[in-house]
Design goal:
Elements: H1 7-26, H2 33-39, H3 54-80, H4 87-95, H5 98-102, H6 109-113, H7 122-143, H8 147-166, H9 170-191
Helix pairs in contact: 1-2, 1-3, 3-4, 3-7, 4-9, 7-8, 8-9
Length: 193
C-alpha cells in the first residue's frame, strides 16, 4: 500500500525538527544521525532517502531554525508591544532572558553553533552565514536601525546568550543577560534611523 500524498515531506520535516532540537542543545559535531533519527521516531536507515549527507541536513536545519526563531520573535514583538515598550525592546527582553537561555532546544541556533561553525565544512559555513545575514536583516528592520547598528545589536545579543549559557555560575549568567539587555537597548537608541 503506498504512503499518502505528502508523507515523504512530512517525514523529512520531522527529521529537520529533530535535528534542530538536537543541534540547538548539543551542537552539530556531538550529535549522530542515529540520535536525530531516533528523535524523529525513525530508524537510521531511512536518513539517506531524505538527505544526501549530514551537511545537507545541517544547512536545511539552520534555515528552518532561523525561520522558527524569527517567527517566535515576531510573535513576541506583536504580543508584548505596548505604549511603554517598543517591539524591539520586547524582543531584546525575551532573547536575552532566562527562559531563552535555559530552553536551548527551542532557542536561537546562532549562539548554539557559533563556537563550532568555523570548524565545519565551507558549505555549512556559507549556509550559517546566509542565515545570520537573514536574522540581522530581520532584527535591523524590526528595530528600525541602520545596518551597522544591526550588526552590533545581533552580535551583542548572540554573544550574550552564548556566554550566559556557557558559565557555571547562575548569578553571573543572569548578570550577563541583564548587562546584555541594557547594552542592546542602548545600541538600538544610538542606531535609530
Amino acid at each position: 500500500m503506498p504512503y499518502p500524498k505528502g508523507h515523504k515531506l512530512k517525514v523529512r520535516n520531522h527529521i529537520i525538527t529533530s535535528a534542530a532540537k538536537a543541534f540547538r542543545t548539543h551542537g552539530v559535531r556531538n550529535i549522530s544521525l542515529p540520535h536525530i533519527m531516533k528523535g524523529a521516531g525513525l530508524t537510521h536507515g531511512g536518513f539517506y532517502s531524505h538527505f544526501e549527507n549530514k551537511d545537507q541536513l545541517v544547512k536545511e536545519t539552520c534555515h528552518f531554525a532561523i525561520s522558527d526563531t524569527m517567527e517566535m520573535l515576531q510573535k513576541v514583538a506583536d504580543k508584548n508591544k505596548n505604549e511603554d515598550q517598543s517591539a524591539i525592546e520586547a524582543v531584546i527582553d525575551f532573547y536575552l532572558g532566562s527562559l531563552h537561555r535555559d530552553q536551548t532546544e527551542v532557542g536561537c541556533i546562532l549562539p548554539a553553533l557559533s563556537g563550532e561553525i568555523s570548524q565545519l565544512s565551507e558549505e555549512i559555513r556559507q549556509a550559517y552565514t546566509r542565515e545570520l545575514q537573514r536574522f540581522i536583516t530581520f532584527i535591523t528592520e524590526l528595530a528600525e536601525i541602520d545596518t551597522s547598528a544591526g550588526y552590533a545589536l545581533v552580535s551583542s545579543m548572540v554573544g550574550t546568550v552564548a556566554l550566559a549559557r556557557a558559565v557555571s555560575d547562575s548569578k553571573f549568567s543572569d548578570d550577563l543577560l541583564q548587562a546584555g539587555r541594557t547594552q542592546a537597548k542602548q545600541t538600538v537608541n544610538a542606531g535609530s534611523k
